[in-house]
Structure formats: C-alpha cells, structure tokens
Write a structure and sequence with these properties.
The structure is a single chain. The protein is mainly alpha-helical and about 170 residues long. The protein has two domains: about 80 residues; about 90 residues, no CATH class. Helices cover about 75% and strands about 0% of the residues. The chain has six helices and no strands. Helix 1 packs antiparallel against helix 2, helix 3 packs antiparallel against helix 4 and helix 4 packs antiparallel against helix 5. The chain is flat and about 55 Å long. The N terminus is likely disordered.
Length: about 170
Amino acid sequence: MTWKGDFHSKGASVSDIIVCLIIIASSVFFYVQTFSFPSIAGYEEMGPEFWPRLTLTGIVILALIIMIGSILERRRGTSPKVESKEKKNTARAVVCAGILFFFIISISYIGFLLSAFLSMMVLAYALGERNKLLLLFFSFVMVAMIYLSFGKLLFVPMPRGIWIFRELSYYLY
C-alpha cells in the first residue's frame, strides 16, 4: 500500500475526530458565554440563554456521536474508498447549497410554508429518497412541526410571500 492510500484509509477518521473536538470546544466556549446574558423581566422561566444552551448541547451530543463512530471505525480498520465518496459528497453538498439558495430566494415570493415544503421535498429527493409518498409525508410533517413550534408556540412571524401567495397565507396563518 502506498503512503497516499494509507493516509486516506486512516486519515478520514482522524480528521473527523479533530473536527469534532474543535466543534465541542467551540460549543463549550459559547455555552459558557450564555452565563453572561442579562435577564429580561417577565421572561425568567425561559430566559435569553435557553435556546442557545439547548442548541449547543445538541451540537455537542451530535459531535460526540460522530467522534465515537470515527474512533470505532478506526479501531476496526474499516474505511470505505474515500476518493469516490469525496466526489459524491461534493456533488451532494453543491446540490444542497443550491436548494438552500432556492429556499432563501423563494421564501420572499411564495412564502414560508410553500417554499419550505418544496425545498424539503427536493432536498430529501436529492439525498436519495425516491418514495413519493414518503417525500410528501416527510415534507408536510416537518413544515407543520416548524410552523407549529415557531409560528404558533413562539409567535415568530413567517414570510407570507407576494400576490396570490400572500392572500392564501392569511387562510393558513
């Protein structure tokens, strides 16, 4: 085995571990920063630090899961072909960025609900899901959960769109 092959077969796990450690360290740093947030009168139960702490805790948990998986993979000595996966992952990343760009642009014109629904369907399809019923169900449930959580529970105003989409949005939210 050449040095390059050896590097790729064992280096992928090491880079995952290093990235995860950087993410964990950054998250811990920002978590500590939340202790300096000032309290706002009337919001003592769920202050301004609640969502950042919840998000950062989730990030640390996910980074730990990835790191443990990389360590176990490295110990087993199994690693898939990196070169073909890198090309495939790069193409998927470009497609996902394009879908995100579409979402950002379309949200102003067709409103949050429709643009989020369409973006989630296309994103799930781009990531490999081919079951049309599952695509519709997943997209609908995810958009409904986001709408109920942010629109109804937290009263976050969502973009309504323009023209007919604006009028239709008044029936929905």
